[in-house]
Predict the structure.
Amino acid sequence: MKLFNFFNRRTSAPVARERLQILLAHERASVSNSNLVALLHKEVLAAVSKHIEIDPDKVEIKLREGDAVSLLEIDIEISANAPARDAPAGVAA
Amino acid sequence: MPKILVVTSGKGGVGKTTSTAALGAALAQSNQKVAVVDFDVGLRNLDLVMGAERRVVYDLINVAQGDAKLHQALIRDKRLENLYLLPASQTRDKDALTEEGVRRVIDELRERFDWIVCDSPAGIERGATLAMRFADVAVVVANPEVSSVRDSDRIIGLLDAKTEIAEKGGRMEKHLLLTRYDAGRAARGEMLNVDDVLEILSIPLLGIIPESEDVLRASNVGTPVTIHSGTSAPSRAYADAARRLCGAQVPMDIPSDKKGLLVRLFGRRAA
Ligand SMILES: Nc1ncnc2c1ncn2[C@@H]1O[C@H](COP(=O)(O)OP(=O)(O)OP(=O)(O)O)[C@@H](O)[C@H]1O
Ligand SMILES: [Mg+2]
């Protein structure tokens, strides 16, 4: 047992490896989330702009991650005098 | 087709400039026409490592802004006739460098060279992103140590997202260069070993450069280590790495702890 301990002293590299693996898994996920948010921002903006004129800076998208559930918040500020776009074809008045 | 190679790392002081000089010289020694370009505006050092610090007249920013012609700024190496240096500015602000300016310089270099090796500054800011912007090959320099590996992971993410080749849907060719590797400490489990780092970063290994006094000696006299001491361990490792960059299959020499078991046991106790 003594010998075993002797050979295992000061081997901090395995700890370093484990810490890195956990940290990087987390960081890589958050980078891909920020890509997802950017993509959602673009597509939500495009979808809403078809019908209402909006300022791209007033579209706010947040992704909050919890353990059990995550929350996707989409906030779009619409100015009081924003003109509505023409109703799409096919929708009868 | 000329290759645009960026030497990058995220973390500072891991050996980017040393590696740029050594790889650039090794490529030139195998008859490629090479330009090494210093992107570390305000903190240039490649000129010093190449021993050209007293010959700098114009720099990258002068050329990018059209204040000097490329041929006026390029410094030809005194030892290797196909090796040239384009220095960074020491006095200007890094914001003086624009993407369009860099693009023009790189396009002009493309006409004259086989390899354009860009020495990136540390960090993930403008200087680093401009250095990688037009590259098609990246050498990610890392030390076997947690913060360096983490920063390398960040840089790999940027290489796959913020470069022109990535934005056009292409694939950036990435290689890992592990530098300042201390085989003894890795064997004793005091330092991440080659397999640890490869497993975590999962990009192919270009080479392992041992920690060595020869590197320091070469930089003291301003000579890339591959020219200064051609037979030293770091020099051979850099030369092999350069051959791999050119597509050659060279067996990987993993530095081993050459000391005997007894010395290792005593070394361990002293550690
Ligand atoms: N294999 C090695 N063995 C010993 N010392 C080394 C080795 N590689 C680099 N060094 C030393 O490490 C120091 C930093 O190297 P270098 O300047 O190349 O790093 P860098 O990544 O360019 O730094 P910066 O981020 O500041 O630009 C220098 O003193 C250099 O001599
Ligand atoms: Mg440097």
Remarks:
- Chain A has a mean pLDDT of 78.
